[in-house]
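Support request, please re-run this one:
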Amino acid sequence: MTAKEKLAQKRLTLLQLAEKLGNVSKACRRHGVSRSQYYEYKRSFQTHGLEGLADKPPLPGPHPNELPEATKEKIIETSLKHPVFGQQRISDQLRLEGLNVSPTSVGNIWIKEDMETRSKRLLRLEEKAAAQAGFVLTEDQIRLIEKANPCFKERHVESEYPGQLLCQDTFYVGRLKGLGRIYLQALVDTYSSLAFGKLYTSKRPETAVDLLYDRVRPFYESHGLTIEAILTDNGTEYKGRPMIHLYEIFLDFNEIEHRKTKVGRPRTNGFVERFNRTVLDEFFRKAFREKFYDSVEALQEDLDWRLLYYHQERPHRGYRNMGRRPLETFQLGKARKEELNAA
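Re-run finished. Output below.
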C-alpha cells in the first residue's frame, strides 16, 4: 500500500468512526482534525468515493512572483557580458540599466540555466561565440576565457630562445611628493620572462633608449646573445619619424627589428603588461607603505634588489617557466640557442 492509499484509508476510518459513535465532534477529537475538515472529507467521499479522500496534485498555473521572460533574457545577457560578476554585481548592473532584480533572483536564473559558476558562464560564452557567426567577444571576455583555459594556443608568443623577442612598455608608477611623476621603463624577454626596469621622471624617447643602452644591451652582450626584435605599443616615446626619432634611430643602428602592437590592443604586449602588474603588487604598493622616498635613486635601488629576487629566487608560473626561476630558463635558452646555431 502506498502512502497515498494509507492517507485515504485513515480518512475513511474517521468517517466510519463518526458514524459508529454517532458523534462527529468526538471522532474528530480522536483523529485530531476539525469538524470543517471532516465534512470536507465526507463530501469528497460521497462524490468521488475512496479516490476523493486522497490528496490531489496542485493545479498548474503561473506563479504570481515569476520573472517575465524579457527579464530572464536580460539577466542571461548581462551575465554573459560580465561572466566573472557575482549575483550582487549583476543585480547592481541591472539596476543601473533601470531593471530592479534581487541577487537571489539572479542566482535562481543561473541555477535553472546551468550557469551558476564562473566556469559554466565562461563556457556558455564560448559556445555562444562559436554558434553565432556575428557575435564579437569584448576584450575583457577574451581575456577571461583565455585565463580560464591555460592551454589556449592563440595566447602563446613564438619565441625559441632569449633575445629573439623582447617586450617594452612605459608604466606610470605615480606622483611622489617633491619628485613629481614617476615612470617605469620595463622590458621583458618573452622566452624566459627575464625583466629589466629603470625609473624616470618623464616618458620620452631618451628614457626608452637609456634602458636599452644602459642595462639591456650590455646584459645580452655579456652572455653572447643578440637582441633580434622588440615589441612596443604606439606611444610617442617609441614611435616617430625613422630618421629623426631617437628610439627608431637606436634600433636601426643596432639592427633590431621594431614591432608594434595593434592600436587599442594592449593584450598583444601581454608579457610586459603582466610584469607591470607583478611589480606593482609585489613591490611598489608595499614599498610606498613602508618607506618615504625622497629621490628616484633611492627608489631605483630598492627596485634593483626586487628585480634580483625576481630573477634568481622567485618561481615563475609562466607557460615557459612552469615554476622555474627566470634566470634558470634564461640559461636553458642559451643552451638551446647554441644547439640551434650548431644545427
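The first helix runs from residue 3 to 21. The beta strands are 166-176, 180-189, 195-200, 229-232, 257-260.
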